[in-house]
Amino acid sequence: MPDGPHAGRLLVATPDLPDPNFAHAVVLLIEHNDEGAFGVIVNRPSDVPLASALPGWEQLAADPPQVFVGGPVQQDGAVALGRAHAGAALAKDVLPSVGVVDLEQDPVLAGVDLETVRVFAGYAGWSPGQLESEIADGGWFVVDAEPADVFSDDPDDLWRTVLHRQGGVFRTVPEDPSLN
After folding, report:
1. What is the Cα–Cα distance from 30 to 42, expressed in whole angstroms?
2. CA-to-CA distance for 180 and 177, rounded, in angstroms?
3. Integer distance in angstroms from the first to the last C-alpha of the chain?
4. Is the peptide bond before 64 cis (omega within 30 degrees of 0)?
5. C or N terminus of the chain, fewer CB within 10 Å?
6. Global pTM?
7. pLDDT in tens, 129-153
């Protein structure tokens, strides 16, 4: 597979990314094609408990069991990602054993196929060529994702964790370049 952006890779905001919606964001790309790209920010929990937003789904929720802010687009809608048990099918695979979950199904029945789930309010979206332009301008690092990234129990440290995992120069990326 190419090294550029595609479904299943992470976009890690560089400290120079000017959009405050994405400061220290780690975005899992769910789709990337000629029509654009979309994904969800996987390291931004909200204050909304999943139990109050989607009763029943909290039984499957990854810790912390909050709704996450998936991005600035359509925050009144939800995108869910789940980790499937071996052999179970998901609505759309994104990573090995991780994919999009249909929230219209009964959460008890979904629990037969799912180990865990994370729900995101909204998503991040880019028109054709927009993401590539932002990457070329130095706004994003594009790196491989690991299934555990989506369900991290320490989302506040995920930005730094993903960068450290890359090794080399990524280990020295400052959180705030103005402090150098």
Report:
1. 12
2. 6
3. 36
4. yes
5. C
6. 0.92
7. 999 999 999 999 999 999 999 999 9
